[in-house]
Design brief:
The protein is an alpha/beta fold. It has helices at 3-9, 29-40, 55-64, 80-90, 115-132, 153-157, and strands spanning 18-23, 46-50, 72-75, 94-98, 135-141, 160-165, 172-180, 188-192. Strands 3-2-4-5-1-6-7-8 form an 8-stranded mixed sheet, sandwiched between helices.
Length: 195
C-alpha cells in the first residue's frame, strides 16, 4: 500500500520472507517501519518488537505519525526467547524487529550486537519466517564504512536487503534494494521527511 516501498520490493512484501532494512542511526528507519505498519495493519496482524525504544516512546512516535490500529501489537524486548514466545502466543502475520543489534540469545555468552549474536538471532528469525510463513522485517544499523553493523553474512541470510539513505540535513531519503530474491534490484523509492 505504499507505492515507493512496493516498487522497491517488486510489488510488496512476500509472505514468509525476511527483509533487512539498513541505514545510519537516526536516518528514519523506525519512522518508515511504523508507517509501513499503518498500511500492513489494514489487512494483517503486526507485532512490532522494539529493542531501541520503550512502548511509551514508540506510542509518542506513532501518535505523531497518526499510526493507530487494533491490529498493531508492540513489545519492548531484546531477549530472543521471550520474543519467540510472544510470536507463538500472538501469531502475527508480520513481525518487525527494531533493531537486530539489540537482540540477544541468552544461550550464547557474547553480548548483544556481537557478530555471533546478530548471526544467531537472524538465523532464528529466518527459520521463523520460513517455518511459519510470518513476514519478518529486521532493522539493522549501518556503520561508518556503510555496511550493516555485524557480519556481511547477514545479507546472504535474508531474502531482501534494503538500504535507507540520505543526508540528515536534507528532507529527502532514498530507499534502494541491493538484494531481492523476489524482484529487481534497480529500483529506488524516494521519501520526503515532513512535519
Amino acid at each position: 500500500g505504499m507505492g515507493e516501498l512496493d516498487r522497491v520490493l517488486g510489488g510488496g512484501a512476500v509472505k514468509g520472507s525476511l527483509v533487512l532494512v539498513g541505514g545510519a542511526p537516526g536516518i528514519g528507519k523506525s519512522t518508515l517501519m511504523l508507517q509501513i505498519c499503518s498500511k500492513l495493519c489494514e489487512f494483517s496482524k503486526v507485532l512490532y518488537i522494539s529493542g531501541e525504544e520503550s512502548e511509551h516512546q514508540l506510542k509518542l512516535r506513532a501518535k505523531r505519525l497518526h499510526v493507530e490500529s487494533n491490529q498493531l501489537y508492540v513489545l519492548s524486548e531484546t531477549n530472543l526467547g521471550d520474543i519467540m514466545e510472544s510470536v507463538s502466543k500472538e501469531l502475527p502475520d508480520v513481525l518487525i524487529v527494531d533493531s537486530i543489534q539489540t537482540l540477544y540469545n541468552d544461550a550464547l555468552d557474547s553480548p548483544a550486537g556481537s557478530v555471533s549474536q546478530v548471526k544467531d538471532c537472524t538465523m532464528a528469525l529466518m527459520q521463523l519466517a520460513k517455518g511459519s510463513g510470518v513476514t519478518v522485517f529486521v532493522v539493522g544499523h549501518v556503520n561508518k564504512e556503510g555496511s550493516i553493523a555485524g557480519p556481511k553474512v547477514l545479507e546472504h541470510m535474508v531474502d531482501t536487503v534494503l538500504y535507507f539513505e540520505g543526508d540528515r540535513g536534507h528532507h529527502f531519503r532514498i530507499l534502494r534494494s541491493v538484494k531481492n530474491r523476489f524482484g529487481a534490484t534497480d529500483e529506488i523509492g524516494v521519501f520526503e521527511m515532513t512535519e
